[in-house]
């Protein structure tokens, strides 16, 4: 199972790099064309915005999976092992609820805007808002896995959360 998750994470990283490269080409190409040839790529700005949103949400999935998101653990570090486990469990439950809120909001916006075309490309705006649904579903899966490991795993799992965040502080 870990190999499958690692390969999915690697695939997401590759996709993010490809999207970032496309953004760079679009924006840099547009700048060169505007200043050098008094022309431009019409869809550059819109597509760059869409790619940026998708990169942000896909990167958030990876950050959640690798426990590299922003956090402070100065209180949790001082708790006894059982307190750490309970604190992290409650935190993951709260994050799971937030994933539900993001999913329900993104689903509503996707359904509202599925028949609305983007101003320049005409691509369905539902695709724009679907990024929130993709993040929330993948994030919820990561959180459910974390909750399972916290409920049944060894103390090493809990210490990994504390130590990972501590190294970045």
From TrEMBL:
Residues 23-152 form the Tripartite ATP-independent periplasmic transporters DctQ component domain. It is a multi-pass membrane protein. Keywords: Cell inner membrane, Cell membrane, Membrane, Transmembrane, Transmembrane helix, Transport. GO terms for molecular function: transmembrane transporter activity. It is found in: Cell inner membrane. The keyword Cytoplasm does not apply. One of its GO terms (cellular component) is plasma membrane. One of its GO terms (biological process) is C4-dicarboxylate transport. The chain crosses the membrane at residues 12-35, 47-65, 86-107, 127-148. InterPro entries: DctQ, TRAP_DctQ. Belongs to the TRAP transporter small permease family. The complex comprises the extracytoplasmic solute receptor protein and the two transmembrane proteins. Part of the tripartite ATP-independent periplasmic (TRAP) transport system. This is TRAP transporter small permease protein. It comes from Castellaniella defragrans (strain DSM 12143 / CCUG 39792 / 65Phen) (Alcaligenes defragrans).
């Amino acid at each position: 199972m870990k190999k499958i998750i690692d390969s999915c994470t690697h695939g997401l990283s590759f996709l993010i790099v490809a999207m970032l490269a496309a953004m760079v080409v679009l924006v840099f190409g547009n700048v060169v064309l505007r200043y050098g040839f008094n022309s431009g790529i019409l869809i550059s700005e819109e597509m760059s915005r869409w790619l940026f949103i998708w990169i942000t949400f896909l990167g958030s999935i990876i950050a959640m999976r690798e426990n590299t998101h922003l956090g402070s653990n100065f209180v949790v570090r001082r708790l006894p092992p059982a307190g750490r486990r309970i604190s992290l469990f409650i935190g993951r439950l709260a994050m799971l609820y937030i994933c539900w809120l993001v999913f329900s909001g993104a689903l509503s916006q996707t359904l509202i805007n599925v028949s609305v075309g983007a101003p320049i490309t005409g691509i369905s705006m539902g695709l724009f808002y679907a990024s929130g649904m993709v993040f929330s579903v993948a994030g919820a899966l990561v959180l459910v896995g974390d909750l399972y490991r916290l409920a049944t795993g060894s103390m090493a799992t809990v210490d990994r959360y504390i130590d990972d965040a501590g190294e970045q502080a």
